[in-house]
Write a structure and sequence with these properties.
The chain is built from nine helices and 20 strands. It is α+β, with helices and mostly antiparallel strands. Helix 3 crosses helix 9. The chain starts with 6 loop residues before the first helix and ends with a helix. The relative contact order is 0.19.
């Protein structure tokens, strides 16, 4: 068994792979090489579905007995944007002023590197033996459509008889300081497309036309006039935001035939996608009455609201964070969606990773000291979990 690599070395190796989703560019190979050298059995299934790019994934496990602690994450990243705006090449993994810069440093190659380094050091200290099992679920399809990624990787693992007890997902959960926040759940996401139907005509003869814009304004106002809820024990109030309102009319003397709006709702555990959709239709029907003709297209949602109830595992991770940072993390359900929404169907899952202040931005970067501290936190988690 070779000496375990450092988290910083692993993070730099991962960032230097230009794995803009759905490209892998060698990133999963970095993970596979490091884990297999430590005795993990590594498999790299590629999943396919019509209309989506084939996507590589990685599953690794050391040990066959329980309990099994799973580390999860992704190695794909979002596009860099204009590279000329970056201080350094986004895939150079440059260290400057105590910061590691590069696309994916925060989201989430840095977190993957820390969990790998912690697990490898843990295994090395025990001569390759684990009092239970450690597994890794790493996908290349998190920043993309998430069709050929974690959801299929989990199904693949379950069909092989894999069983997991707890999962720690290394997403960048901390807003500004390492140790601030653990995610114990996520809000759901539902998108709707609203079309109000009218009749095109000349603006000088409105009686011969039917302008859809006043109807659209009436319906959009009805959707936001009353709060959807007041929040719940672990969630903020559900929130509806309009993201587009479009008519597409280039003429100033023509009443358009249709008007459209798109909205997205981030909803709490008071709702499911179905019950929320029913409430949206109820509000629209009431506002439309017999005078507004509309169509509503609610997009399929694979993002339900979910909560991992605070338990001994949450406490274990919180105490590890406090021991290394001196901070007591807030248990939060804020933010966007993550692959935890799939993992929660097979075992309890919580999220804790690096500071996410610069994720998806130009000059994405994380403090080198935070990489070292996060690795130490993960090591404490492993030591306590398998004590």
């Amino acid at each position: 068994m070779t000496q375990a690599p450092s988290a910083l070395d692993l993070a730099q190796a991962l960032i230097r792979c230009a794995s803009v989703t759905p490209e892998d560019a060698g990133a999963l190979g970095v993970v596979a090489d490091a884990l297999s050298a430590a005795g993990f059995v590594v498999e790299r299934p590629v999943f396919s579905e019509a209309g989506y790019p084939d996507t590589p994934n990685l599953f690794a496990r050391l040990g066959r007995e329980g309990p099994c602690l799973v580390f999860a994450g992704h190695t794909d990243v979002v596009p860099t944007g204009e590279t000329a705006e970056w201080r350094h090449d986004p895939f150079s993994a440059t260290i400057e002023g105590g910061m590691l810069y590069g696309r994916g440093a925060a989201d989430m190659k840095g977190g993957v590197a820390c969990m790998m380094a912690a697990a490898l050091a843990f295994v090395e200290r025990r001569g390759g033996k684990v009092p239970g099992s450690i597994a890794f679920l790493i996908t290349g399809d998190e920043e993309g459509p998430a069709v050929n990624g974690t959801v299929k990787l989990l199904d693949w693992a379950r069909q092989r008889g894999e069983r997991f007890d707890h999962c720690l997902l290394g997403e960048p959960t901390n807003p500004g300081t390492l140790g601030e926040m653990i995610k114990i759940g996520r809000r759901g996401s539902l998108t709707g497309k609203l079309t109000v139907l009218g009749r095109q005509g000349h603006v000088a003869y409105p009686h011969k036309a039917e302008n859809p814009i006043p109807g659209l304004l009436r319906l959009t106002t009805a959707l936001i006039a009353e709060p959807l809820d007041g929040g719940s024990a672990h969630f903020d109030a559900s929130n509806l935001e309009f993201t587009t309102i479009d008519v597409g009319n280039t003429a100033t003397n023509v009443i358009p035939a249709t008007a459209r709006a798109t909205f997205n709702i981030r909803f709490n555990d008071d709702w499911t996608a179905d019950t929320l959709g029913a409430e949206i239709r109820r509000r629209l029907d009431k506002a439309a009455g017999n005078s507004v003709r509309y169509l509503l297209d609610l997009q399929p949602s694979n993002s339900p609201a979910f909560l991992t109830q605070p338990d001994s595992f949450v406490t274990l991770v919180s105490e590890a964070i406090q021991a290394e940072t001196g901070l007591t993390p807030v248990l939060s359900t804020t933010g966007g969606t993550s692959d935890a929404r799939f993992i929660k169907d097979v075992c309890p899952v919580i999220e804790f990773g690096l500071v996410g202040e610069t994720m998806h931005q130009v000059d994405e970067g994380v403090a080198v000291a935070d990489i070292e501290r996060l690795t130490a936190i993960y090591q404490r988690v492993l030591d306590t979990y398998f004590a």
